[in-house]
Specification:
Radius of gyration: 22 Å
Shape: globular
Strand order of the largest sheet: 2-1-3
Largest sheet: 3 strands, antiparallel
Helix content: under 10%
Distance between the termini: 40 Å
Number of strands: 3
Number of helices: 1
Structural class: mainly beta
Strand content: 15-25%
Mean pLDDT: 79
Length: 84
């Protein structure tokens, strides 16, 4: 399930909340309910904004370098890149 960052206009707090893409959270009370946090002194009807964030899901296979290690491939001049 993806996570999203929301900022409360009234108190300036940023909270990370996990929910499906179909859910639209618009108030501080909704954020607190989903994040299971106490709303504190901020009114539950205070507006929130979803912040633009990216790259939160990275597959482990994307982190593997498919290129050969240094000095073993045609792009490296026998270890001249000092990576061996």
């Amino acid at each position: 399930m993806p996570s999203y960052d929301y900022r409360c206009d009234r108190n300036g707090r940023v909270v990370e909340v996990k929910h499906s893409m179909n859910v639209k959270l618009r108030t501080w009370g909704e954020i607190c309910s989903h994040a299971e946090i106490d709303p504190g002194d901020t009114p539950k009807d205070a507006p929130v904004q979803r912040l633009i964030t990216g790259g939160q899901v990275v597959r482990s296979s994307a982190l593997k370098n498919p290129e050969p290690p240094c000095a073993s491939g045609p792009c490296c001049g026998g270890g001249m890149c000092e990576m061996n």
